[in-house]
Design a protein that fits this description.
45% of the residues lie in helices and 20% in strands. It has eleven helices and 14 strands.
Length: 413
């Protein structure tokens, strides 16, 4: 199972998209003059290519209005310096993945060089989190403009908080080591800031780097980390969502996010009982998004602030992600909110109830389709694992994680 990946720009004549014999589908990112405006993926049923006629039909039906809106925006919006941005640190918290780290650094090279040429240098900080060897340090040593620090306490949020302490910049951006930045990544962040200078945080679009395996396709078909192609400014309330801001996953993903550094410090940094590694591999980004909103800071989602993420290739790894990151991690985050934000306790409890009811319905629907021999988006076993992870998180998962983290801190005193 494989979906060919295409990146097309409608400012230029469309061309037929050739498929390989092994392809079962196509995934298409659509741009207008380099600006990403839409994405779709679909099965191709053995076709040798995606024809120009099919492309024209899909683009017109799915993105016609957006193309017009983007053309109008470009015409009416005054041109500004694409690199006009306050001081910035890019933090890459990593553990034992030197090849992925090297790939990410290479993808940043051109934009960092342009910023340096414009006398707006950007600091790149590699936080090596409890490494088992020196490979990450060796990669950093080959990049003279990269600063390396070792964080011995294991857990992603320990690494994120180390970056807060190390950064002297006004803004701190976090990139996961398994992403590659788009050529317009930095310009997208700068544009979002120029239009929202009071924002406390920015999140960006996260698309699939590849769709080479069944696990990657299943994950992206469910929605992946995509959050759409409209810039959204989130404030303290939402008139359309009574559970707001509890469903913090709608704000963006931790793979690509940016914060005011002083705000992070004032909020006490990331909760180190979330995103602790194998025990609770999730929830830390959601918790911070929630706290940013509850503290009264605007949070802006910017689709041009775009990265490509290497999804898990193996079904076993994806199953663990559903069970622990999306089940256990999400519910630990909600339990933490229930403990620390009594003012929002009722809507948070409603969100817990909704989550279990919704995921049970999705599981039953997929089981029903599987029993009838019909196509289903997600293997029921995977959905059951997500529900089980949520139950474990609800029944003391956050407290157990907090005790483990306290023991880790004592160990490194």
């Amino acid at each position: 199972m494989r979906y060919s990946h295409f990146d097309i720009d409608v400012a230029y004549p469309l061309q037929e998209l050739p498929l390989e014999r092994s392809d079962t589908g196509a995934a298409v990112l659509v741009r207008l003059k380099g600006v990403p405006i839409g994405f779709w993926m679909e099965a191709t049923h053995g076709a040798p290519s995606v024809s120009i006629d099919t492309l024209e039909e899909r683009i017109a039906s799915k993105f016609g209005d957006r193309i017009v809106a983007e053309a109008v925006r470009e015409e009416l919006t005054p041109r500004s310096d694409p690199l006009a941005f306050p001081s910035l640190t890019i933090a890459i918290c990593t553990k034992d993945r030197p090849e992925s780290l090297k790939r990410l650094l290479e993808s940043l090279r051109t934009q960092l060089a342009a910023a340096a040429a414009a006398r707006r240098p950007i600091e790149v900080l590699i936080v090596d989190n409890a490494p088992s060897d020196s490979r990450t340090r060796d990669v950093a040593a080959r990049w003279p403009d990269v600063r390396y620090v070792l964080e011995p306490k294991p857990g992603l949020n320990f690494g994120r908080n180390r970056a807060v302490r190390e950064s002297g910049s006004e803004f701190l951006t976090y990139l996961d080591d398994d992403v590659v930045v788009d050529c317009g990544w930095l310009a997208g962040l700068c544009e979002a800031w120029a239009a929202n200078r009071d924002a406390g945080a920015f999140t960006g679009q996260v698309l699939a780097l590849e769709l080479e395996t069944e696990a990657q396709i299943i994950f992206e078909r469910r929605g992946g980390f995509r959050r759409g192609f409209d810039r959204i400014r989130y404030g303290p309330i939402s008139v359309n969502d009574q559970l707001y801001p509890g469903g913090a996953g709608s704000f963006g993903a931790g793979a690509n996010m940016c914060f005011r550094t002083r705000m992070l410090a004032a909020l006490g940094g990331f909760d180190e009982a979330l995103d602790t590694g194998a025990w609770v591999p999730g929830g830390g980004d959601l918790d911070m998004f929630y706290r940013v909103i509850r503290a009264g800071y605007p949070l802006v989602y910017e689709p041009r602030f775009l990265v490509f993420h290497e999804h898990r290739r193996e079904m076993a790894d994806l199953s663990r992600q559903y069970r622990r990151s999306w089940g256990l991690g999400f519910m630990c985050y909600l339990v933490k909110c229930l403990k620390t934000d009594p003012e929002r306790r009722v809507p948070l409890l409603r969100l817990v109830k909704w989550w279990f009811v919704h995921h049970t319905r999705v599981l039953l629907n997929n089981l029903h389709r599987q029993a009838r021999g019909l196509d289903y988006k997600i293997p029921p076993k995977m959905l059951a694992g997500e529900l089980w992870g949520g139950l474990v998180g609800l029944l003391g998962g956050y407290g157990r994680s907090a005790r483990r983290v306290a023991a880790i801190r004592r160990q490194f005193q």
